[in-house]
Amino acid sequence: MMKGYAMLSTGKTGWIQKEKPVCGPKDAIVRPLAVSPCTSDVHTVWEGALGDRHNMILGHEGCGVVVEVGAAVKDFKPGDRIMVAAITPDWDSIEAQEGYAMHSGGMLAGWKFSNFKDGVFGEYFHVNDADGNLAHLPDNVTVEEACMLSDMVPTGFHGAELADIQFGDTVLVVGIGPVGLMSVAAANMRGASRIIAVGTRQVCIDAAKGYGATDFISYKDGPLDEQVLKLTNGKGVDKAIVAGGGVETFEPVINALKPGGKIGNVNYLGGGDYINIPRVGWGVGMGHKQINGGLMPGGRARIERLARLIQYGKLDVNPLLTHKFEGFDHIEEALFLMKDKPRDLIKPVVVIER
What we know:
Elements: E1 2-9, E2 12-18, E3 28-35, H1 39-46, E4 56-57, E5 62-69, E6 81-84, H2 94-97, E7 125-127, H3 130-133, E8 134-136, H4 143-150, H5 152-163, E9 170-174, H6 178-189, E10 194-198, H7 202-211, E11 215-217, H8 224-231, E12 237-242, H9 250-255, E13 257-265, E14 290-293, H10 300-311, E15 321-326, H11 331-340, E16 347-351
Parallel strand pairs: 9-10, 9-12, 10-11, 12-13, 13-14, 15-16
Antiparallel strand pairs: 1-2, 1-4, 3-5, 3-7, 3-16, 5-6, 6-8
Helix pairs in contact: 4-10, 5-6, 6-7
């Protein structure tokens, strides 16, 4: 048996005992070294965004040490310190062959941890397709940084990819929590000239400045589209990344977008049934304004490429890590921090073992 922190039912969490996961021939069993709760866990538990789940261990961000591998695993062995992305596709699937591995087995089905199976907030966790989904943890990447490589970095960077940011673009980033901050960093790396960030918490504004944001606006100061158009002399932005807000967020973003502009959405929409697209703002259907929403790519190649940005000093994720805990039993406290979001929080991390 093992201990884990679980979603007991919608709106309820707690510690439970469960059977240790079983290792298949292509799989690995991992003991966590560090984990981090996510706003997605909050949506899942307290908004029921994925539907009711019973006694499902939470968590999809972490790193660990391999304790067991299946007979078909070639590149990993017990004792290896590893990184793992939040999305663990089945790499031999048709969807993977078609370029959408994150949807292997069905829409969003590459997201397995704390969705279809127990997540990483247990004393052990299971990783499918270990050779495709694990990555060796570099010596100069800390366990805290490795947690950010599970989800925050790849999701934020995917927002910049979905928005197709080019050199010189003026970019709007809606939401500068940890994912949005990584979207700011990615937009800056891809050559954005001006990055307008939407946020109110000073700790996030300070971090966003460090990652390359040039202007800041707030929902509290009026409609976002009006503020953006004022800042850009009525022209609007070339691209936008949506990393926060709800279904109502898309209307002002579309209004603030130039004809031919693109929106990259990486925000987990936890509630609402429909997204409103403004008829006139969308060019009465002919404005060439695109909305691209996507689950971030998972897998070994992706996490290794992003880890190199940290290894060689191109990206510093430490400004995200505002609250650090030592010890497995602090997982509950860290999760509730993400739920309550005190003003000095960006991201908590729980170190279990170094």
